[in-house]
């Protein structure tokens, strides 16, 4: 016999999954079947709703809200369809255009967040790997094998993507510069003893992923607007068309980029609160709390790190509370980009991450290096 808590947990998780699937389907469906402005209006309404939902969750904190919002997204979709079934209100069109402009100009912000989060995650992996090595040679051997596989997989991924990713002289030049810069920074990091093979292999995989997206074969999936039969005049008889749309015409590169971006942001949000605690290695069995930090630390510095930890934890809580809003805005931005725009954003992402990594490797003082002993090979 199922316990009540198990039933409620399954119900709440199903509601969250249903909400995510609705967003995944409704936004590209509106873009393909009606117009760009209808898509922007639906995206704006979903964003406003998610902000209201996040604020209520922050104040109330009840899981019942997950159930209550399930019918809201279909209602907003029908509202969008109804608005554009006739001549839309000019103010609604103006709001949609402004929202589209805001999403377009938000591109650099998304790239910065993705690049910083990726670098933070691979550095955290390097930190955890260093701790595992201390437990014995078996862990060290396993990490060496995993790192070798990662390097080989990254190299194969780049070579396999090269014909399409380097389709123009400029793209091939950027690819060569990116790989050269990565190898150069890896050597510098090893010489200065400020990185390890886990971190380096993680960044190699990150570069390979972005290069692969730059060369993703656009012919491997169908243009959503090419095989569409109009849904507005008669929605019910076209359920088969909707099913075909879901199966065959969802933009796969966008979904992959969305999944990676949301995952890396979520992982980084969990790492941020631990950054202030990594500078001091606690004794085994000791509580990892700020009250247990060395008393010899300058009180002003101690207060600074304590304030930083509190602010970071609050920022992480806000990110997790409004993750649905981030989901909608990131997805909408990716859907707005055409293939050529996505390629240039990918190259910017690669070089921005490499620049931040180079600054982190070369600017850190020797004292910081000694504190971050997980960065030493």
UniProtKB/TrEMBL annotation:
Which domain of life does the protein's organism represent? Answer: Eukaryota
InterPro entries per the UniProt record, alphabetical: Ice2 (IPR013635)
Q: Name one GO cellular component term.
A: cortical endoplasmic reticulum
| Protein name per Swiss-Prot or TrEMBL | ICE2-domain-containing protein
Keyword entries, A-Z? Membrane, Transmembrane, Transmembrane helix
Transmembrane segments in this chain: where? Answer: 6-27, 39-60, 98-121, 141-159, 171-192, 343-363
Coiled-coil positions are: none
GO BP terms in the entry: endoplasmic reticulum inheritance; septin ring assembly
């Amino acid at each position: 016999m199922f316990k009540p808590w198990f039933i409620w947990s399954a119900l709440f998780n199903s509601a969250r999954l249903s909400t995510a699937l609705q967003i995944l389907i409704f936004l590209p469906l509106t873009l393909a079947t009606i117009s760009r402005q209808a898509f922007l209006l639906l995206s704006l309404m979903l964003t406003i709703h998610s902000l209201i939902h996040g604020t209520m969750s922050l104040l109330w904190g009840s899981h019942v809200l997950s159930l209550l919002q399930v019918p809201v997204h279909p209602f907003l979709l029908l509202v969008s369809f109804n608005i554009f079934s006739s001549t839309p209100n000019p103010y609604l069109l103006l709001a949609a255009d402004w929202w589209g402009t805001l999403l377009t100009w938000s591109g650099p912000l998304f790239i910065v967040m993705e690049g910083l989060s990726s670098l933070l995650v691979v550095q955290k992996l390097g930190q955890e790997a260093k701790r595992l090595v201390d437990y014995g040679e078996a862990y060290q051997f396993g990490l060496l094998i995993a790192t070798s596989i990662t390097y080989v997989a990254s190299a194969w991924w780049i070579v396999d993507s090269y014909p399409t990713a380097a389709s123009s002289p400029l793209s091939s030049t950027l690819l060569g510069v990116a790989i050269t810069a990565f190898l150069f920074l890896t050597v510098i990091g090893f010489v200065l003893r400020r990185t390890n093979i886990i971190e380096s292999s993680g960044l190699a995989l990150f570069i390979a992923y972005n290069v692969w997206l730059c060369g993703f074969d656009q012919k491997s999936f169908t243009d959503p607007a090419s095989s569409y039969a109009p849904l507005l005049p008669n929605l019910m008889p076209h359920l088969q068309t909707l099913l075909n749309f879901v199966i065959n015409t969802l933009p796969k590169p966008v979904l992959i980029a969305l999944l990676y971006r949301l995952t890396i942001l979520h992982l980084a949000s969990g790492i941020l609160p631990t950054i202030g605690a990594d500078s001091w290695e606690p004794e085994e069995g000791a509580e990892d709390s700020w009250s247990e930090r060395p008393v010899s630390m300058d009180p002003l510095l101690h207060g600074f790190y304590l304030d930083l930890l509190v602010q970071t934890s609050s920022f992480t809580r806000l990110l997790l509370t409004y993750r649905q809003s981030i989901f909608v805005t990131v997805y909408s931005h990716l859907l707005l980009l055409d293939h050529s725009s996505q390629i240039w954003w990918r190259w910017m992402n690669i070089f921005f991450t490499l620049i931040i990594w180079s600054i982190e490797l070369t600017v850190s003082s020797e004292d910081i290096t000694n504190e971050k002993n997980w960065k030493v090979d």
